[in-house]
Amino acid sequence: MLAAPINPSDLNRVEGVYPVRPPLPAAVAGYEGVGQVHALGAAVDSRLLSPGDWVIPSPPSLGTWQTYIVNPATAWHRVRSDVPPQYAATVTVNPLTALRMLRDFVNLAPGDTLVQNGATSIVGQCVIQLAKLHGLHTINIIRDRPGSQEAKDKLKQLGADHVFTESQLDIKNIKSLLGALPEPALGLNCVGGNAASVILKFLRQGGTMVTYGGMSKKPVTVSTSSFIFKAELRASVFEAIEEEDRVVENDDGGNPALLGSCNDRAKQLHASPSGRLLTALVSEYLEWAQLSHTMKVYLPECNLPKDFWKNELKDFSNKSGAEGSRSAESGPMLLDVLEGYLKYEDFN
Questions:
Q1: Where is the Enoyl reductase (ER) domain (predicted)?
Q2: Catalytic residue among 18, 68, 285, 341
Q3: Average pLDDT of the chain, as a whole number
Q4: Which pLDDT value is given to residue 320?
Q5: Is the pLDDT at 329 greater than 80, yes or no?
Q6: Nearest residue to 86 (alpha-carbon basis) of 7, 158, 9, 165
Q7: 190 close to 210: Cβ distance less than 8 angstroms
Q8: Residues 146-204: pLDDT tens digits?
Q9: Nearest to 7 by CA among 215, 146, 165
Q10: Torsion on CA atoms 176, 178, 180, 185, rounded to nearest 10
C-alpha cells in the first residue's frame, strides 16, 4: 500500500462503535487507499493488471492499513499513477458521497443554492467544487476556532459563495445573510445537534435536509415549526460519513446493487427463502402504510434492490393462494400472515 487515509469511520471501527463491524480477531483497519501491484498470481490475466500498476480496492474493503495485501485481482481497480498518491487514496469514499448527495435527493438546476455544515471536511470541500462545476451556489458553515479566517479563504478559493462560522449565525433573521442568492433547496448535515437546526433555518419552504453524519455525537435538533411547516426531512443513511448506499452496476449487467450497508446477521437471513419473504412482507407493509421515508432507508440497509419484494410476494401469492393485489381497505399481506398464524396456533 502506498497511502491510506484515516477517516472518522475508521476510528469508529477501531473504537468498536461503528454499526458495521469487521470480523475479529484478525481485523485490520482502513477502508480505502491506493497500492502498487507487487506481484501477480500465475492465473491472473496480464491484461487486467501488471506489476507496478497503481490500484484501489473496488468496492472499498477493510484492511488498507497494512504494508502488503493479498487479494483476488478482481478486488482491485487500476488507476492513473500520475496523480498525487493522497488523491488516489481518497477518491472512492468522500468524493462519491458528495456527488451522490448532489444528485440523489433534489433536482438541482444551475443557479440553485445549497447549504452545508462541516464544510472543511473532505466531503464538504468536494461538495463546494462539484457545486461550482455545475453552476450551483453554496452556503458553508464552519466551527469557530483559531485559523477560521484561513479556512474561509481556502473554501472560497475552492468556489464557496459564502462561508460563516457558527457564531456569525446567531442572529434572528438568518436569511438576511443570503444576499442575492436564492433560498437553499438542499441542506447537508454531517454534524448533528443544534448545527442541524441552523441548516433548517436556511432552507426554503419544502427544502430537503440530508443527514449523512453525526460528528457532534449529539441527536439532530429540529424546532417544532421547522419540522411541521418548513422542511421535508429525509432519513438518508450514508452511514456515519461516507460508505453507505454506493450504487454500482453488477458484472452481469443486471440491476444496480446497494453495497456495504448490510450486517452479517441480516445477510444470512436474506440468503434464505423465508428470510427474503420476511423482508418482502415488511416492505409491502411499509408501502401500504405510506411510510416512504422508512422504505428509502430500509431497503438500502437490507442490501436489496428497490423492487425485489414485489416478485417475492408474487411468487408467494401464486404458491399460497393469497390475494396479491392489496388495497387500503384490505390491509397489508403481513397482517393476513400473522392472523393466519394466530388462528393456526389457536391464540386469542
A1: 2-299
A2: 18
A3: 83
A4: 74
A5: no
A6: 7
A7: no
A8: 999 999 999 999 999 999 999 999 888 888 899 899 999 999 999 988 888 899 899 98
A9: 215
A10: -120
> Model's pTM, two decimal places?
0.64
Q: Count the Cβ atoms, other than its own, within 10 Å of residue 69.
A: 19
Q: Residue 234 above 50 pLDDT?
A: no
Show the domains of the chain with their CATH numbers. 1-91 (3.90.180.10), 94-234 (3.40.50.720), 262-344 (1.20.960.40)
The whole-number pLDDT of residue 258 equals 39
Cell digits of residue 163: 462561508
pLDDT at residue 224 greater than cutoff 90: no
User: Would residue 87 show up in a list of annotated catalytic residues for this protein?
Assistant: no
For residues 288 and 281, what is the distance between their CA atoms, to the nearest angstrom?
Answer: 10
| Per-residue three-class SS string for the chain | CCECCCCHHHHHHHHCCCCCCCCCCCCCCCCCCEEECCCCCCCCCCCCCCCCCEEEECCCCCCCCCCCCCCCHHHEEEECCCCCHHHHHCCCCHHHHHHHHHHHCCCCCCCCEEEECCCCCHHHHHHHHHHHHCCCEEEEEECCCCCHHHHHHHHHHHCCCEEEEHHHHCCCCHHHHHCCCCCCCEEEECCCCHHHHHHHHHCCCCCEEEECCCCCCCCCCCCHHHHHHHCEEECCCCCCCCCCCEEECCCCCCCCEEECCCCHHHHHHHCCHHHHHHHHHHHHHHHHCCCHHHHHHHHHHCCCCCCHHHHHHHHHHHHHCCCCCCCCCCCCHHHHHHHHHHHHCCCC
Report residue 328's pLDDT band, with 50, 70 and 90 as the boundaries: low
